[in-house]
Design brief:
The structure holds 2 protein chains of 2 kinds. Chain A has 6 helices and 20 strands. By secondary structure, chain A is α+β, with helices and mostly antiparallel strands. In chain A, a hairpin with a 7-residue loop joins strand 13 and strand 14. In chain A, helix 1 runs parallel beside helix 5. The longest helix of chain A is centred in the C-terminal third of the chain and has 29 residues. The radius of gyration of chain A is 21 Å and the shape is globular. By secondary structure, chain B is of the alpha+beta class. In chain B, strands 7-6-13-5-12-9-10 form a 7-stranded mixed sheet. In chain B, helix 2 packs across helix 3. Chain B starts with a helix and ends with a strand. Classes of the chains: A alpha+beta, B alpha+beta. Chains A and B meet through strand 12, strand 15, strand 19 and helix 5 of A and strand 1, strand 2, strand 3 and strand 4 of B.
Chain lengths: 344, 224
């Protein structure tokens, strides 16, 4: 069991979401940065889709009411365990009574706390993700607040700790360099792209778009020199996926995110490729976005690369667990260094 | 039939990223296209690599795993099935919705009547006389977009949406009508209230309505 020690109107329990119910008007939800949640789960020996805590409001504090194995992934934030620094992207054993604090990130915006076993909340439509709009899933269908007690699901067998993985930034390039504070993502043009004037298309591609404070799990509202919207077709409502870049009459784009509307009708400039959604998820208000037009085959290759990397990580962690079966604690330090090298 | 169809343009396809395709049926919006969309959606659910289908208004979104089925292969399959899928989708069910029109939970009935230049009784009569078709579900869990509203009852949405309307609100927005499944913000005009569970996440399926269903409203009473 763990006890949440801080309020955060946007800190929620998330797994990989509930796809398959969109046609009933139910958003997919799920971790914004699914790569961070996935890796966090691998580090604590969980199936990749186990439920963890997505943290958007910092500092975030939690007390462990029993021994546990945890990992902190996602946003680049300082983590303190009883005041002592804790390595991120690292498998760590914590003791009953210890308090973990995640401080405001230096980079990125969504932190993930994964725990061995996974958070034990009821499955709703096959997922433990919180749907804030529909008010179901997660912990009582709402964000976490101070005093919430969360149980963990039982996990079988011991799990060796004391190793980590490299951040995805280093392994999953975005296909181009960008200065600090600028996030580059690739997008595939959508049906209405061709209806924008050449000037509009260029403005969209060349401008650095500001991520406004109105951005949330449902969508990112961008701000910049508005795109010309005259002459764009009127659309009938159609299905939406996370990553869809819509252009409402204001000319200021909106990107649908994890809690995307299931349907909508604004003209679409394009859709951010799935392989870059985790990177977009880590953008924060005040950051600037740059879009690069990609081909479908480039997007599929990037997705295949990501999956292959995650699979390799899983295998490496599994073989490490097997090899470590009989390793004594005094050897763990050496193991840490060894593993650090393997993943670096 | 073939002859008529061959004079119609084919559906238009576009990418929604690398993992979804949008198929837009030829304009204008037409119930026969829509039936075809439902049938095609049903058919595609069993296509290997397809993760999810989402019928919209005169269109269909198919979500897929591009490492299992390439977009162009999926597109050929969709356009190949477009003419053949006919009307063999699941038959829609009939849903009767009992409504208390007007009163505290039907606060816009009078205004809708005024806008239409009709009496309250005539508005209710028109609303219950019609058989509506569920085109698709969206916006909120379990909310069905109903087609078939008598044109006299159409009314532009409110300038300022209400922060919250009650569960079961029977509403008119533009040329559409529907029942709002749970208390939530809405810009539609509320003409009555239905004591009906359109959505329950613990039920299977969670949504009462499905695309292709027929909805009839029944007047319980009119509150004035």
């Amino acid at each position: 069991m763990i006890e949440i020690l801080s309020n955060g109107a946007l800190n929620t329990i998330q797994d990989l979401g509930r796809p398959g119910y969109r046609k009933m008007g139910i958003t997919v939800a799920g971790a914004m940065d699914s790569v961070a949640l996935w890796i966090g789960n691998l580090l604590v020996g969980n199936p990749p889709g186990s439920a963890g805590i997505e943290i958007l409001i910092f500092p975030f504090r939690v007390r462990f009411l029993a021994d546990a194995v945890i990992a902190v992934t996602g946003a680049d934030c300082d983590a303190l365990l009883d005041g002592a620094p804790l390595l991120p992207w690292w498998s760590t054993r914590v003791r009953q009574g210890q308090v973990l604090e995640l401080q405001t990130p230096l980079q990125g915006s969504k932190g993930y706390l994964t725990l061995r076993g996974g958070v034990d909340v009821p499955l709703v439509l096959q997922s433990r993700s919180t749907d804030l709009k529909a008010k179901f899933g997660g912990h009582q269908g709402r964000a976490l607040k101070k005093g919430d007690l969360l149980r963990l699901l039982p996990a079988t067998g011991d799990w060796q700790t004391g190793y980590g993985v490299q951040r995805p930034q280093a392994r999953l390039p975005s296909g181009g360099d960008s200065p600090p504070g600028v996030v580059q993502v690739r997008m595939i043009p959508a049906a209405e792209y061709a209806f924008f004037t050449t000037e509009g298309q260029e403005r969209f591609r060349k401008q650095q778009w500001l991520v406004t404070p109105d951005s949330n799990r449902q969508g990112y509202r961008l701000s910049g020199t508005p795109l010309p919207t005259d002459g764009l077709p009127e659309l009938l409502s159609h299905g939406l996926v996370p990553g869809t870049i819509q252009v409402p009459p204001s000319g200021q784009p909106i990107i649908q995110m994890s809690d995307a509307n299931t349907s909508g009708g604004y003209p679409k400039m394009g859709v951010v490729i799935e392989a870059d959604m985790w990177r977009l998820a880590q953008a924060r208000p005040g950051d600037r976005l740059v879009f690069r037009v990609a081909t479908v085959s480039e997007a599929v290759t990037a997705l295949a690369k990501r999956r292959a990397w995650l699979q390799k990580l899983e295998q490496a962690i599994c073989s490490r667990q097997r090899a470590d079966g009989n390793v004594r604690r005094k050897n763990v330090d050496a193991g840490m260094a060894r593993m650090g090298n393997i993943y670096a | 039939m073939r002859d008529i169809e061959s004079r119609h343009p084919l559906p238009r396809f576009s990418n929604l990223g690398s993992g979804a395709l949008l198929m837009e049926a030829p304009a204008p919006l037409d119930i026969s296209w829509q039936r075809r969309i439902w049938a095609l959606a049903y058919q595609m659910e069993s296509c290997p690599g397809v993760l999810e289908t989402m019928p919209g208004m005169n269109n269909l979104m198919v979500v897929f795993d591009p490492l299992l089925i390439p977009a162009d292969a999926l597109q050929s399959r969709l356009s190949g099935s477009w003419h053949d899928c006919g009307r063999d989708g699941p038959a829609g069910k009939q849903v009767e919705v009992p409504v208390v029109y007007g009163g505290e939970n039907g606060m816009d009935l009078q205004q809708v009547a005024q806008h239409a230049g009709l009496s309250v009784d005539e508005v209710v009569r028109l609303h219950v006389e019609t058989s509506y078709t569920v085109y698709f579900l969206g916006g909120y869990p379990g909310f069905g977009y109903l087609g078939g509203l008598p044109p006299e009852l159409a009314m532009p949405r409110r300038q300022v949406p209400r922060m919250q309307v009650p569960k079961g609100s029977v509403a008119i927005g533009g040329q559409q009508t529907g029942v709002i499944p749970s208390a939530q913000p809405s810009g539609w005009h509320i003409i009555g209230n239905a004591n009906i569970d359109l959505f329950n996440e613990t039920r299977d399926p969670p949504a009462l309505l499905a695309p292709g269903d027929t909805v009839r409203f029944r007047c319980e009473r009119i509150e004035r």
